[in-house]
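Hey, quick one: can you model this chain's 3D structure?
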Amino acid sequence: MKIKNYTSTVPVSESIRRIEIMLVEFGAQHIAKHYNGIAVAALIFSLPMPDGKGYIPVRLPVRADEVEKVLSAEVRRARRGTFEKIKDQAARTAWKLMTDWIHVQCSLITLGQVQPLEVFLPYVYDAKEKRTYFEAIQSGGFKALPYSGGQAE
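Sure thing. Here's the predicted structure for all 153 residues.
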């Protein structure tokens, strides 16, 4: 399977700018960037609560290092600079994919197919614990999720 945007030439900064614009259009406040060294690793922002009383913090991670692993595995004969180019490409690909994902989610919100919190719920961020809602239920062995004993209903 080919990976979408694996040859993207859109700079990371442009993808982040586009994401920020889309998030603001859907009510996001206080958008910040979380860095891993000199690279942006996540966007953190607040979404209004459905009842309009306050905001919910959201952390959207972009794991360019994971994309880099996949792209590097495809290399047959590396030349000088190959893996540096892959690292840059991985960041562009990861951020472009996030831009596309946000665009699709915002389109679904506009069309009334989903609510903002419905889309971003796994990414709701607990700053005290420094983890997302998904990471919290993952660390608990997913016991907070309904389980049907392996049978599809």
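One thing worth noting: Helices lie at 12-25, 64-73, 82-110, 116-120, 133-139.
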